[in-house]
Amino acid sequence: MTGHLLALLLAACTGSEPAPAAAPPPPQVGVVTVASSTVPLSTELPGRVEAARVAEVRARTAGIVIERAFREGADVAQGEVLFRIDAAPLRAALARAEASLARAEASLLQATQRAERYAPLVETRAISQQEYDDALASRAAAEADLAAAKAAITTARLDLGYATVTAPIAGRIGRAEVSEGALVGQGSATLLATVQQLDEVYVNLIQSSSEVQRLRRAFRDGALERTAEDAVAVTILRDDGSEFPHPGTLLFTDVTVDASTGAVSLRARVPNPDLDLLPGELVRARLVQAVAQDAITVPQQAVTRGAEGSSVLVVGADGLAAVRPVQVGGAVGETWLITEGLEAGEQVIVDGFQRVRPGSAVTPTPWP
């Protein structure tokens, strides 16, 4: 006890003080060094699948259906027989037309012979000019009757051919709209079935007009470059988020805005060899409409978004953390496109926010 007091008295006499504790090192933070690059900007749009071709099979002649020759929901080839209509009345109509043709040919022969006999007689005044003119008129009328009889033959043969209803295109046929025994084609072309080509489909997309205008302004100002419309690849996303394995291509973008929805229509063509996409199905499509040159992107977790806008934490040349307001252009994968506020070469803090206060010193380390 006495020794301890003696040591304190000696320290007081000499004026020495205990050494202060060492300051902790600046906290480590994960950073990325900003670099500019060419970035394709993708957009996801809602869409609906539509068959590439749709053919309504209709009755082109009147009669009773006597046979349905296909299985509903099956794939049919172009020209394959689908229905047969009772052809007996049509064969009878063809026979009548052929008889009328024979009668017209006989009448023309008779009128021609009469006109040929009258020709020399009118020159010798053995008959009057009126009689000769009547013979010529009779021959002309007989020629017209013959032409009408030939047209009737053609019509009768067409009607007889229409009694066998075939598929106008190859594709998948739906349900039959009529059954055997139905009277079809009476006064109108009765719908019999519908065939849809599904090995290639259209996807009709919609995009808000405001987004279209924003893109056009960016193209006009040179901030973005337009992707050639015939080179825009389209990736279809199913309702479970999975990607359809066959990419499509953008066909066109409409030039008018739908007054009821305020949207612009786009159409893509997508191969569908396995017939997985069905008409009417709702899907989403990812497509690249623009490319940003010398673009700057940062990981999404580096950006703080609040009521006052978006910002990031950067490490200055003095090693101090600082808040930097930025303008976010949109998502590019798992990064944000930064249109204003950052330059190539700057260090942005991505990891270790909880250990950083603006203006404090930090130790930057590369973020994986």
Strands of the largest sheet, in order across it?
A: 2-9-13-12-11-14
Coarse morphology: elongated
Overall pLDDT confidence: 87
Beta fraction = 35-45%
Main pleated sheet = 6 strands, antiparallel, barrel
Enumerate how many helices there are, as a single number: 4
* Low-confidence parts: 5-11
Structural class: alpha+beta
Q: What is the CA-based Rg, rounded?
A: 43 Å
Total beta strand runs: 20
The span between the termini is 59 Å
Order of helices and strands: HEEEEEHHEEEEHEEEEEEEEEEE
Percent range of helical residues: 25-40%
Explain what this protein looks like in three dimensions.
The protein is of the alpha+beta class. Helix content is 26%, strand content 40%. The protein is built from four helices and 20 strands. It has helices at 2-14, 88-123, 129-162, 209-221, and strands spanning 28-33, 36-58, 63-68, 75-76, 81-85, 164-166, 171-173, 183-184, 191-208, 225-226, 233-237, 248-257, 263-271, 282-299, 304-306, 309-315, 321-332, 335-340, 347-351, 363-366. The strands form two sheets. Strands 2-9-13-12-11-14 form a six-stranded antiparallel beta barrel. The protein has a four-stranded antiparallel β-sheet with strand order 6-5-3-8. It starts with a helix and ends with a strand. Residues 5-11 have low confidence and may be disordered.
